[in-house]
Structure formats: C-alpha cells, structure tokens
C-alpha cells in the first residue's frame, strides 16, 4: 500500500460583514485547511472495505474520490 500527500494548504477564512457606516468589510473567522492524501493498493476488496469503513467513521467528515481500475 502506498500513501502520498498530494496537497496540504492552510489559508485564512473570512466573511463579509457590513459596518455601522454600511460599508462592507472582511472579518477573520479562522483558518481553512485542505489535505489531499492519495492511497494506492492492489485490488483487494477486504482492504478497500476497511479503508471505506474508516473514512465513514471519521469525525471530520472528509470528502473523498474513488478511482477503481
């Protein structure tokens, strides 16, 4: 099995708000993180099941893309 970190990115998260003078401003609300990880392994349905089960139980609710072939 191969693990490859494809991307790790951290950037500021801001929202647009109106001020008392009715002008638009950006307000800092935190950070946004993106972490893309590529996992490759030979065709193995049992291992695939374990990986998908682990992803489904994650508390952070990741987005994922499967490429099978």
Keywords:
elongated, 69 residues, two-stranded antiparallel ribbon, single chain, alpha+beta
Task: Report what the structure shows.
Helices cover 17% and strands 49% of the residues. With 69 residues, the chain is of the alpha+beta class. The protein is built from one helix and two strands. The radius of gyration is 19 Å and the shape is elongated. The chain has one domain. The longest helix is centred in the C-terminal third of the chain and has 12 residues.
Number of strands: 2
Q: Which ranges are low-confidence, i.e. pLDDT below 50, for 5 or more consecutive residues? A: none
The rough form would be described as elongated
Given the structure, what is the number of helices?
A: 1
Q: What class, by secondary structure content? A: alpha+beta
| Structural domains: how many | 1
What Rg do the Cα atoms give?
19 Å
Distance between the termini: 16 Å
> Helix coverage percent of residues?
10-25%
Sheet of most strands: 2 strands, antiparallel
Instruction: Order the strands across the largest sheet as they lie in space.
Output: 1-2
Q: Could you report the average pLDDT, rounded to the nearest whole number?
A: 88
Order of helices and strands: EEH
Proportion of residues in extended strands: over 45%
């Amino acid at each position: 099995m191969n693990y490859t970190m494809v991307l790790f990115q951290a950037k500021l998260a801001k929202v647009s708000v109106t001020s008392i003078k009715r002008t638009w401003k950006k307000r800092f609300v935190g950070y946004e993180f993106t972490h893309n990880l590529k996992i490759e392994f030979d065709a193995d349905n049992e291992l695939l099941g374990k990986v998908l089960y682990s992803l489904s139980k994650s508390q952070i609710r990741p987005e994922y893309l499967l490429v099978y072939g």
